[in-house]
UniProtKB/TrEMBL annotation:
Chain segments annotated as coiled-coil in the UniProt record: none
Gene Ontology molecular function: any one: 3-phosphoshikimate 1-carboxyvinyltransferase activity
Protein name listed in UniProt: Enolpyruvate transferase domain-containing protein
Entries under PANTHER family matching the protein: AROM/DEHYDROQUINATE SYNTHASE, PENTAFUNCTIONAL AROM POLYPEPTIDE
Ranges where the Enolpyruvate transferase domain occurs: 28-198
Amino acid sequence: MPQVLSSAVTIDPSALKSGQKLGPPPGGVVELPGSKSISNRALVLAALAEKPQGTCRVLNLTPSEDIRVMLAALAKLGVDVKYLAEGPDSGLNVELECPEGALALRPDASSASVTTVWVENAGTVARFITPVLAYLVATSKDLSAAVVVDGNERMRVRPVRDLVDCIQRAFEGVKVEYQGNTPGCLPLRITKSRKRSVPDVSEGQASSGFPCGTVEL
């Protein structure tokens, strides 16, 4: 019986004559897009590795929305981003420089101590930048330092509870609060706290991106 794969493709085995041999398979090259997850991990590591008056080049990044959002988030933390010429595979090449020598919270224009980081609907940004923000709050000399991590409506229904649990385990003196209408989702508010919360986390249930964000620190 003929099998219809789509309105334009039909496979009919009966069309082959008895003993007829098929020709060689078609050849060609298919270029697969790179990993936005690996690209964003590389950007976070490059930003954390910055030294005074030093630069770090990251080449052949995946040109995607997640990468654009991550670069904007790093810029909010004091990283100067310079776009270089595209690579031979049309990858995105950037040069990162941290004039202040290290990442730092940059409060919003409307607040003296609150830094808001917008992650759109980029899950890789939410998973990898949030632990960095928690670290900056934990090490800040400003006792009123606070960070709000937020995204669009779609991001606000994507669960991040495992990520928050990992952060609470990793950073003593940091408090993470859910401020949205959906439990366990963005927006998050990260502040200093004298208490350490160690919730129960079921092993093997979380995306690798959740613990990886804290391991990178």
